[in-house]
Amino acid sequence: MSVNPTASHIPSPWRSRRKARGDRKLKREAVIHAAARAFNARGFHNTSLDDIAATLEVTKPTLYYYVESKEQLLFECFCAGLEPIHAAFRDAREREQSARERLRAVLLRYALAIASEFGWCMVRAEDQDLSDAMRAHVKALKSEIDQGIRRLLREGIEDGSIGPCDPKMTAFALAGALNWIAHWYRDNQPQSPAQIADAFVALFENGLRPRAD
Hints:
- By secondary structure, the chain is mainly alpha-helical.
- The protein has a domain at 78-208: Tetracycline Repressor, domain 2 (Orthogonal Bundle).
- It is 66% helix and 0% strand.
- It contains ten helices and no strands.
- It has helices at 23-42, 49-56, 60-63, 70-94, 99-114, 119-124, 132-159, 167-179, 181-184, 193-208.
- Helix 4 runs parallel beside helix 7.
- The radius of gyration is 19 Å and the shape is elongated.
- The N and C termini lie far apart (49 Å).
- 35% of the residues are buried.
- Mean pLDDT is 86; it is low at 4-8.
């Protein structure tokens, strides 16, 4: 189930007595967003389900109606953060643009996702105490992103919109630089996520442009 990444500060839906359509989905999204903010602020091990429940003004047993464990909650946060990037790749396949332009669109949305409340979960989930199955799934999803970037780099080299480079190493460099945003970006930064995304991608674009003879 996908989560709306732009709804970064959803108020607790349990505060409203009115029954809304899609109520369970709304509450599940609120749980995932609250967890992402808590993990981002305090880390995974220093955050308890009681902490997340208190933020939402519910009891811990209420959370078990939406997730099975704290580990699953971290995994759901990871998936929610990645969904905009997967959507960017899907959109890129539909665009009749050069590969560099399509890659630029993907990287912008990648940067925005990393600068969102899900950023910490996206880059640190694999290092936490996940089950072997969840960790394998995390690795597989990360690999899809990596392979998607490599594919656009190869297409860019072929259509002449990207200068000669090693797609594997370049993809590692791009993802590594973007992932590092999660280690230092916080909501109180003077730059917005969109400004940071634009700045990072502008640097990448200059490096990827074909060199004039």
